Amino acid sequence: DETKSPYYLLGEREGIQKLVTTFYSLVSQDSLLSPLFPKDLTETAHKQTQFLSQFFGGPPLYTEEHGHPMLRARHMPFPITDSHAKAWLACMERAMTAHKLEPELQNFLLSRLKMTAYHMVNTKDSER
Ligand code: HEM
Which co-factors does it depend on (predicted)? Predict the structure, then answer.
């Protein structure tokens, strides 16, 4: 039943787009995360909207335009530590709270994102 997919519950493309906009505005104000990202986050936000759409059960927009996500490989140019994963997740949690998601939905989404975020870690905090 597609009306129960996280994609649908998030408000489909428009809901994800709004969440992602808030998320990157928080990322751009985060002193640990912002140095890793380009100044203009328009394209980054567009790709993340496409990715989260498919990650949460919606249309495979990211793969249609960019091919297989290979997210860990695409993050290898950036030194990502446990602290970055934690900061990334904190920004996402704040964005979700700002958009008043149902707590159950929020917990579910964050638990899935947590696995992906820690999977991106490629550097020890002590090596930064
Ligand atoms: C791209 C950082 C976690 C999805 C990027 C970029 C950076 C970055 C610096 C490149 C931005 C650009 O050049 O436009 C991080 C950090 C993370 C993290 C520090 C902390 C763990 C995640 C997670 C996801 C994700 C958990 C998915 C749920 C993406 C996507 C892109 C991206 C889809 C675009 C890839 C492309 O170039 O096509 N990330 N990221 N990231 N990130 Fe992350």
Answer: heme
